[in-house]
């Protein structure tokens, strides 16, 4: 057993080691002509950054390349100890510092032989471990001084050093605590939310101008500011045409729900599109006084021209609109060359790119075709022409004439109303919204003057009831002026109006879609029926899905759910039908096999390493027909 100390690492103290693990110190530098392939030498190499100086390792020379007299290359493999523990194919940087490994029995070194101290990489790459220079990385991060190392504290979180007298406030002595954290990493106990306390504003929100304003205006904090809880994946975001499973007449309470359905992706913006591609959808909400809605066609005003500086939601017209950004995107849908000066009229308006149109209830002040509540999908329109003109505001605006081109009947026609009735389409509310509004109505009724008398004397007078739907409508008109609505908190309150109010609330809050029975079934083409019979591996899955044909658009939702890939949680693309009748995307299954997982992702059935992935072309063709365009985004 040998005892020795390392001068460079005094913190290790005296180290005890067996004699078999100790060898004579390397002292002989090898020249180029002394190097041979297979020779084991000691070299300097940086594993993390090969271009810099690092630590010393034993290495075996694997290649010697003499490109020219001054340009030479040595390839090595680093030996880390174990028989298979090596780092192969490393390029040596310091060719003049290759040491021969001394064998046991070599003469010992003395002071006469001089110092054989090898160069190693600096402990600090910023100051190169210069004791005279200040460094805030290897020394005190406040003053950078390297003096008084015994008076420095090391943060247990960021690993930075601090002199105790450089702290604010300074410390008199080194604390006795085992753990110490610098002021940056320390948790402020005043910011910790305890049980029953209100959530405190973050530092970012505390610095916002809105945190120090004297305005009492409520800017919503609601539905125009929330993020999507789900995203439409059956079609890409740049999809033209209708979204599969969304019939004309489908209505949603808030714009964020329209975005989640994939019909119109922006939460607030009126036009969705790209200036180098075209427009995919728009919302007709009567935001401009120039707009005229005639049902099957309407004139639409482009975006821009308003000063929205200072985080304004809306503003007055202050400059001319230009045919750029979203305005240019909508103009690209017209079947005519783009003209940013005079506009253009389509040669064949039906040949233009389709635009999904959503009408908002806020447009009822200018149009009788707008829905009474929420946002309604009204089908496909085409751009007939676009032109610039001076608007009522006195500035130049871009106008667009759009005409309806959809096989499904418009929702305001008798045929469209009958179809909406048949499909049982009603305004879709966010989960828990109806219950929260009912609780708010009861809470306001309890807080109304005279409510306490009604509790004590239920026989005096008759309580005045206000239907929930009317209440919801009033609040919608007030809050949607800013297109930001405040979600209500659902808290249980005692009923003050007896059983009569309970029956009214139940009747008004019950979704109409549940009370109406769907009668229009989903119609399969002859080709689709033939392909379903041909897809024998998925016969059981198709039998289950076809049981929902009578539910109309819900059939497509069932198909999407049945043939969803268990890996990516999206509709299977290039599906592989396994022997256990599960459908997985080809790329997902290949990724699983690359990870050496050779089982079915759904049921863990052993597929085997040599499993042949056969693409189910019949199923892919069916999915392309049911969900046209979904494969473009994959």
UniProtKB/TrEMBL annotation:
Bias (Polar residues) ranges: 491-502
EC number: 2.3.2.27
GO cellular component: nucleus
Protein name, entry field: E3 ubiquitin-protein ligase UHRF
Residue ranges, annotated region (Disordered): 442-520
Entry function: Multi domain E3 ubiquitin ligase that also plays a role in DNA methylation and histone modifications.
Keyword Zinc: yes
Compositional bias ranges of the Basic and acidic residues kind: 503-520
Bias (Basic residues): 453-471
PHD-type domain span: 135-188
MF terms in GO: DNA binding; histone binding; ubiquitin protein ligase activity; zinc ion binding
Bias-annotated ranges (Acidic residues): 475-486
Biochemical pathway: Protein modification; protein ubiquitination
Residue ranges of every copy of the YDG domain listed in the record: 241-404
Reactions the enzyme catalyzes: S-ubiquitinyl-[E2 ubiquitin-conjugating enzyme]-L-cysteine + [acceptor protein]-L-lysine = [E2 ubiquitin-conjugating enzyme]-L-cysteine + N(6)-ubiquitinyl-[acceptor protein]-L-lysine
Predominant location category: nucleus
Location within or outside the cell: Nucleus
Keyword entries, A-Z: Cell cycle, DNA-binding, Metal-binding, Nucleus, Transferase, Ubl conjugation pathway, Zinc, Zinc-finger
Comment, domains: The YDG domain mediates the interaction with histone H3. The tudor-like regions specifically recognize and bind histone H3 unmethylated at 'Arg-2' (H3R2me0), while the PHD-type zinc finger specifically recognizes and binds histone H3 trimethylated at 'Lys-9' (H3K9me3).
SUPFAM superfamilies in UniProt: FYVE/PHD zinc finger, PUA domain-like, RING/U-box
Enzyme class: transferase
Gene Ontology BP, a term: protein ubiquitination
Organism name: Oncorhynchus mykiss (Rainbow trout)
RING-type domain span: 565-604
Domain of life where this protein originates: Eukaryota
């Amino acid at each position: 057993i040998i005892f020795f100390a390392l001068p460079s690492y005094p913190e290790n103290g005296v180290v005890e080691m067996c004699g078999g693990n100790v060898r004579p110190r390397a002292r002989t530098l090898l020249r180029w002509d002394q190097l041979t392939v297979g020779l084991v030498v000691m070299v300097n190499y940086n594993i993390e950054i090969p271009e810099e100086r690092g630590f010393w390792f034993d290495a075996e020379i694997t290649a010697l390349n003499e490109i020219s007299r001054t340009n030479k290359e040595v390839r090595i493999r680093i030996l880390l100890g174990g028989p298979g523990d090596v780092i192969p194919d490393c390029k040596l940087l310091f060719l003049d510092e290759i040491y021969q490994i001394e064998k046991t029995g070599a003469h010992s070194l003395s002071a006469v032989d001089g110092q054989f101290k090898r160069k190693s990489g600096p402990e600090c790459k910023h100051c190169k471990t210069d004791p005279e220079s200040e460094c805030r990385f290897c020394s005190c991060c406040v003053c950078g001084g390297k003096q008084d190392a015994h008076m420095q504290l090391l943060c247990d979180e960021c690993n930075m050093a601090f002199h105790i007298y450089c702290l604010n406030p300074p410390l008199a002595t080194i604390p006795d605590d085992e753990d110490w954290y610098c002021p940056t990493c320390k948790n402020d106990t005043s910011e910790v939310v305890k049980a029953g306390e209100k959530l405190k504003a973050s530092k970012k929100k505390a610095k916002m101008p809105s945190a120090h304003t004297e305005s009492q205006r409520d800017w919503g904090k609601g539905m125009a500011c929330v993020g999507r809880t789900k995203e439409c994946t059956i079609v890409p975001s740049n999809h033209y045409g209708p979204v599969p499973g969304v019939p004309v007449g489908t209505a949603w309470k808030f714009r964020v729900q329209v975005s989640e359905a994939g019909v119109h992706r922006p939460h607030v913006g009126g036009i969705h599109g790209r200036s180098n591609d075209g427009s995919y959808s728009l919302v007709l909400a009567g935001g401009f006084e120039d707009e005229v809605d005639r049902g099957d066609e309407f004139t639409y005003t482009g975006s821009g021209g308003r000063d929205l500086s200072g985080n304004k939601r809306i503003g007055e017209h202050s400059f001319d609109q230009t045919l750029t950004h979203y305005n240019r995107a909508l103009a690209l849908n017209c079947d005519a060359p783009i003209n940013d000066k005079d506009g253009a009229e389509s040669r064949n308006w039906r040949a233009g790119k389709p635009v999904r149109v959503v009408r908002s209830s806020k447009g009822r002040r200018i149009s009788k075709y707008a829905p009474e509540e929420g946002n309604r999908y009204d089908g496909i329109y085409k751009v007939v022409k676009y032109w610039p003109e001076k608007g009522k505001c006195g500035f130049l605006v871009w106008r667009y004439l759009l005409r309806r081109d959809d096989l499904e009947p418009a929702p305001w026609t008798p045929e469209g109303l009958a179809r909406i009735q048949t499909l049982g389409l009603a305004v879709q509310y966010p989960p828990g919204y109806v219950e929260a509004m009912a609780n708010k109505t009861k809470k306001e009724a309890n807080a109304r003057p005279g409510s306490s008398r009604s509790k004590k004397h239920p026989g005096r007078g008759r309580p005045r009831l206000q239907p929930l739907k009317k209440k919801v409508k009033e609040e919608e008109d007030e809050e949607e002026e800013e297109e930001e609505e405040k979600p209500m908190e659902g808290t249980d309150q005692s009923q003050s109006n007896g059983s009569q109010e309970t029956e009214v609330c139940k009747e008004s809050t019950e979704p109409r879609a549940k009370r109406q029975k769907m009668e229009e079934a989903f119609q399969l083409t002859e080709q689709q029926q033939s392909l379903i019979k041909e897809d024998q591996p998925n016969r059981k899955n198709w039998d289950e899905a076809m049981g929902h044909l009578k539910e109309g658009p819900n059939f497509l939702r069932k198909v999407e759910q049945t043939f969803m890939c268990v890996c990516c949680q999206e509709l299977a693309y290039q599906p592989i039908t396994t022997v256990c009748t599960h459908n997985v995307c080809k790329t997902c299954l290949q990724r699983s096999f690359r990870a050496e997982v050779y089982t079915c992702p759904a049921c863990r059935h052993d597929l085997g390493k040599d499993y042949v992935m056969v693409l189910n072309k019949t199923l892919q063709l069916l999915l392309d027909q049911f969900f046209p365009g979904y494969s473009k985004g994959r």
